[in-house]
Amino acid sequence: MIRAAVFDFGETLLSEERAWGVWAEWVGVTKQELFAAIGATIELRAPHVHALELCKPGFDLGQALAEREALGIPRHEELYDVYPDAEAALDRLRAAGLRVGVAGNQPSGAEAALGAIVIGPRDFIATSTDWGVSKPSPAFFERLAYELGFPAEEIAYIGDRVDNDVVPAAAAGMFAVHLRRGPWGIVQAAWPEAARARASAANLGEAVDAILSPGR
Q1: What mean pLDDT is predicted for residues 35-47?
Q2: Which domain of life is it from (predicted)?
Q3: Strand ranges of the sheet holding 99-104, from the earlier edge strand across to the other edge
Q4: What's the CATH class of domain 4-15+80-212?
């Protein structure tokens, strides 16, 4: 029996499209060019910053962040938008009696991006920065189970990334749900490791269906 459902932040509950669009303007390319670079980066299994380096040789992330801050440009996580299906999905899970959570690789304060979602008193929110451990480390998922107070097999973890979400959550014994949206979700759906997911969903409604009826 699944007693808790925990969601990743970016490209799961929150769209990063607008945030990446600002980065495209910053490095001087079109959105299409940056998203093509992101696709290539995913296939290479390289970190996010590689996409910006492809678009702008010699790109220095630290320098760019400092310059953006000086100009008053919002940080990446401040430009997230809540996906339209997010709140209804969380409401369905709460109504079914599940504990709902959000936890992912984000800086402290990223939870502010969830502002359009009504957060309940029993809901759980955490970032890798606050915990001092990031996905895909097993310690992240151990901490998640500890904080929730449930055995791993009673926790569903939903995310768009096969490498950071599905594989480590499944290895921890959780009910791993792969959300096939966003650049990582679409490209990584073709990876062999995607088969580690207990369920694959095109949207949060399908993800909730899988969680509430895991044996179907």
Answers
A1: 97
A2: Bacteria
A3: 124-127, 99-104, 4-7, 155-159, 175-179, 199-201
A4: alpha beta
